[in-house]
Amino acid sequence: MTxxxxxxxxxxxxxxxxEQISLILETAARYEKVMALGGRLTNMAGKVLATLFFEPxxxxxxTFETAxxxxxxxxxxxxxxxxxxxxxxxxxxxxxxxxxxxxxNLAVIRHMAEGSAKELADGASVPVINGGDGAGQHPTQAxxxxxxxxxxxxxxxxxxxxxxGDLKNGRTVHSLSWLLGKYGPRFYFVSPQELKMxxxxxxxxxxxxxxxxxxxxxxxxxVKSDVLYMTRVQKERFTDENEYERLKGVYAVNNEFLGKAxxxxxxxxxxxxxxxxxxxxxxxxxAAYFRQAANGIPIRMAIIALVTGNE
Length: 311
Fold this sequence. Notes:
Blueprint: H1 18-36, E1 48-53, H2 59-70, E2 74-78, H3 93-100, E3 106-111, H4 116-123, E4 128-133, H5 139-153, E5 160-164, H6 171-180, E6 186-190, H7 199-207, E7 211-215, H8 218-224, E8 227-230, H9 241-247, H10 255-258, E9 266-268, H11 289-294, H12 296-308
Parallel strand pairs: 1-2, 1-3, 3-4, 5-6, 5-8, 6-7, 8-9
Helix pairs in contact: 1-12, 2-12, 3-4, 5-6, 5-12
């Protein structure tokens, strides 16, 4: 059972089967319990993780690196893509993948171009994990989001979940909608018309029998939802700064808003946040976004161990 992910690239959530998802969640929970009890893990001792971050990241990079270190492994990194790697000189990611085989046991890549993780994986024989490719996918974020929902709500089945904000460019919501769709939710997709969820995702979910309600009204969705997953409007994906300025403050969650939402609603956010969640909301019991960020460590520990066969 624990070998069903060995040597597997984690590039897109659509590639993950339910038994593989369950194994990741169960392994993460076990590792989290070990750490909470003061235990140590050494299953990655002598192994090396290569982190290639060609796009800025705090949470994803640090949780991957922390996860590896907590299991006794080592990390080599590219963190300044403009000056410290051969891609600047024209090296193709396929060739970078070939090169990584010589000194790492697995690699995580974040890149501004969709399909970049697959190109690296095509060259590498070691497992490659997609840490975010442009506006495409972010599978490990979706897995930690799933883990968070399970912990906060006590289940994954039959939930009503609102995804709100920049659904067009938000790779986190792209991945989460595919992944959570395996558990039979009802979705509210809340966004301005200009930032709607890509039609291929919405249509695919609906074709699978998932109820999807598209709306611009955040309050309407929050009244009926168990989970509200907020996202920032992603300035880096816009070519027209005026359009960004017009759309950036379209939704905001504050204490007044919470008073109108469903009682006990769980508030999530992939971070970093801008103005879409006020700091006063941090005191709300259901504000799960910082717990969500912490959940990245056990989830990424589980993924690292399982794909390398060192569980």
